[in-house]
Task: inverse folding
């Protein structure tokens, strides 16, 4: 007897940037640049997006749902913190960032109202997902797109903040930015990831709780419901991703 597949939902996230700018290069890198199997950057764009969003925002999405027990929330928070720590280690090792540099803060590259320069073109990228309706990914993406009275960020800010912290140094290196720019971006990313760890601890972890007991240190914070959870751009035209104005 053939089993019916669980119902899915379609969720899209749309971002805009200017080609030739750091924010435009970040968006283009995450969406369409392929990496080797030995790269610290996942080869599939969907993994790049969900890894960053999950690590930054999953506890907020679970908390907003309202019926999540404390152990589940603590476990998710600890898992996200561990993933953020691993990303800090990847960036520090890849870009040779010394420990005394990791507390420095850099300016965010994201400016939502950039105008195209003479050479730049408007880049529109749509990330399309089709997770199971009951999955954590559906819950997470729905929260990312929803207004919040607790986390005062728009959908665009929530997505770009996470993508920038995780992948900006890799994007700038791919587009052959100067060593100084790449190095500064790596320091800034590490600082943003450390700040997010502090915010998660302050928001969700009670100082008196032994939250380490609730989850194994090597547990991944996200369980992907399907290998077909996002569309692969390799088999489709890119004309819906880039528009020139």
Result:
């Amino acid at each position: 007897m053939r089993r019916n597949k669980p119902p899915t939902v379609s969720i899209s996230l749309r971002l805009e940037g200017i080609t030739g700018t750091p924010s435009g290069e970040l968006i283009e890198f995450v969406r369409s640049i392929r990496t080797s199997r030995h790269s610290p950057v996942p080869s599939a764009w969907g993994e790049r997006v969900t890894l960053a969003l999950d690590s930054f925002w999953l506890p907020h999405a679970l908390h907003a749902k309202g019926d999540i027990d404390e152990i589940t929330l603590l476990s998710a928070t600890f898992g996200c913190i561990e993933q953020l720590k691993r990303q800090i280690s990847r960036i520090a090792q890849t870009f040779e960032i010394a420990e005394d540099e990791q507390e420095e803060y850099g300016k965010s590259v994201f400016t939502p109202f950039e105008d195209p320069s003479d050479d730049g073109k408007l880049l529109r990228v749509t990330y399309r997902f089709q997770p199971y309706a009951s999955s954590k990914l559906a819950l997470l993406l729905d929260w990312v797109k929803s207004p919040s009275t607790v986390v005062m960020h728009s959908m665009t800010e929530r997505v770009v903040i996470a993508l920038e912290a995780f992948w900006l140094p890799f994007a700038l290196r791919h587009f052959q930015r100067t060593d100084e720019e790449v190095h500064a971006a790596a320091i800034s990313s590490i600082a943003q990831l450390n700040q997010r760890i502090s915010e998660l601890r302050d928001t969700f972890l009670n100082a008196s709780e032994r939250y380490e007991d609730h989850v194994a240190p090597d547990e991944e914070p996200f369980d992907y419901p399907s290998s077909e959870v996002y569309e692969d751009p390799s088999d489709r035209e890119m004309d819906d991703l880039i528009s020139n104005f």
In short: Confidence is low (pLDDT under 50) at residues 109-116, 210-245.
